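Run log, item B.
One chain of 221 residues. Sequence copied directly from the ordering sheet:
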Amino acid sequence: METKQLTKIELEEIERQLSHPSGEKGIEIAALMHQSNIDMTRVSIAALHIEDANVILEIGHGNCGHLNEVLSVAKELTYIGLEISKTMHIEAQKQLNKETANAAIFKLYDGNVLPFKYNTVDRIMTVNTIYFWENPKEFLLEVYRVLKPKGLFAIAFAHKDFMEKLPFVKTKFQLYSPKSIELLIKESPFKLKENQLKQEEVQSKSGETVTRMYSVVVLEK
């Protein structure tokens, strides 16, 4: 995408698509998200210390262009992807092939209630979705519910002081600093296991190259 001055309508459309990708524009935005978020995704995968036969849940997988990378970390893994976006649900299934068809499951959900029983998942990850959680405290409780004892949850998010400078970040985003995420976690039953601070150069959704500060927070049940 070329750097240009975007209109108010274009910026509003980017914000809407980032929160809930849909249609052809959603597919385009998802491809950009995959490209710009891949390092955050890889750091999150590594932070989970995935083991053989683990059940891995990803919340908000986008087009899931990283599916093979997740499944190559260990043996006999089961990957479950959850999305609120029907467009992304369909796009993600294009990543399936003979090697992954029996190891990956994609589901739609309402963005609030995880469609799983208690203590059923070993590892959970989510990259750049926390901004859109409607009820963060309740959502953490949902994640805690479905994780097995000693299970890990990795949350990757760009810092507030970076995000608030982006022209398309408006009312749909709830922004977090490293400190505010720790305060949120303290109100949950999770234990904070790790808080990695990272920096990288990325191309923004409006076409500019920017320095992004982000965290990958690892919680343990």
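Observations after the first pass:
- The beta strands are 55-59, 78-83, 104-108, 121-127, 147-158, 191-203, 209-220.
- The radius of gyration is 17 Å.
Flagged for discussion on Thursday.
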